């Protein structure tokens, strides 16, 4: 979004008031999503927070109907890191997230959907997470879903979550949330500029997840 567009939007809404044309944004995930004060992090968005602490991909699949029932205009999905703590396989995580994306696309054909890469955490999980993200990046176009790779913004070279953004190598601190939101906001603008399900979204070169 260029500066002119941004200035025009700033004149059309006041902080704390959603932009009606955008509709509701559903943020779906685990404690990482739950912990975000998204109304402040994404001013101008009408956010419904579907994050739940401790949720794995199995858990989110079970309650995906709750998201569908609200019929949001846009969905941003990020889940998967808790599966690794339960020693779920890469294939298990990928299959569940792909099922979520296919289900959301089938049930909500006009909704814009943004799939986000599983975030970095301790570097000992880096190889697994890169593998998951590579599969999801390749799958996203087939479900007409946008893709956001968070690794360039949040990970060190060895795959460790940047310690400037965390206190425990997993959850984000205030600066981590600020950086995350700074990646999400333009990604939402990009997917809103494209038809929701008429064609696949062209994805960028994702160096961090290859």
Descriptive report:
Helix content is 43%, strand content 12%. With 210 residues, the protein is of the alpha/beta class. Helix 8 (126-139) links the parallel strand 4 and strand 5. The radius of gyration is 16 Å and the shape is globular. The relative contact order is 0.14.
Shape annotation: globular
Order of helices and strands: HEHHEHHEHHEHEHH
Count of helical regions: 10
Spatially, the strands of the biggest sheet line up as: 2-1-3-4-5
First-to-last CA distance: 27 Å
Radius of gyration: 16 Å
**Helix content estimate:** 40-55%
Give me the secondary-structure category: alpha/beta
Attribute tags:
210 residues, alpha/beta, five-stranded parallel beta sheet, 43% helix
Summarize the model shown:
The chain has 210 residues and is α/β, with parallel strands linked by helices. Helix content is 43%, strand content 12%. The model is unreliable at 1-20 and 198-210 (pLDDT under 50).
How is the topology of this model organized?
Layout: H1 3-12, E1 24-29, H2 31-34, H3 38-41, E2 46-51, H4 57-62, H5 64-70, E3 74-78, H6 81-85, H7 90-107, E4 112-116, H8 126-139, E5 146-148, H9 151-154, H10 174-192
Parallel strand pairs: 1-2, 1-3, 3-4, 4-5
Helix pairs in contact: 7-8
């Amino acid at each position: 979004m260029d500066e002119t567009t941004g200035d025009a939007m700033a004149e059309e809404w006041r902080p704390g008031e959603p932009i009606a044309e955008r509709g509701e944004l559903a943020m779906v995930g685990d404690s990482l999503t739950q912990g975000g004060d998204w109304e402040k992090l994404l001013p101008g968005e009408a956010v419904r927070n579907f994050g739940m602490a401790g949720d794995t991909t199995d858990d989110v699949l079970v309650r995906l109907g709750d998201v569908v029932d609200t019929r949001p205009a846009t969905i941003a999905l990020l889940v998967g890191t808790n599966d690794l703590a339960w020693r779920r396989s890469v294939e298990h995580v990928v299959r569940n997230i792909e099922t979520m994306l296919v289900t959301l696309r089938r049930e909500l054909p006009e909704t814009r959907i943004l799939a986000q890469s599983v975030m970095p955490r301790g570097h000992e999980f880096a190889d697994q997470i890169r593998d998951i993200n590579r599969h999801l990046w390749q799958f996203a176009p087939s479900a007409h879903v946008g893709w956001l790779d968070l690794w360039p913004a949040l990970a060190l070279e060895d795959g460790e979550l940047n310690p400037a953004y965390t206190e425990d190598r997993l959850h984000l601190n205030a600066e981590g949330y600020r950086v995350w939101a700074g990646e999400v906001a333009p990604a939402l603008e990009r997917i809103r500029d494209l038809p929701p399900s008429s064609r696949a979204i062209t994805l960028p070169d994702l160096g961090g997840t290859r």
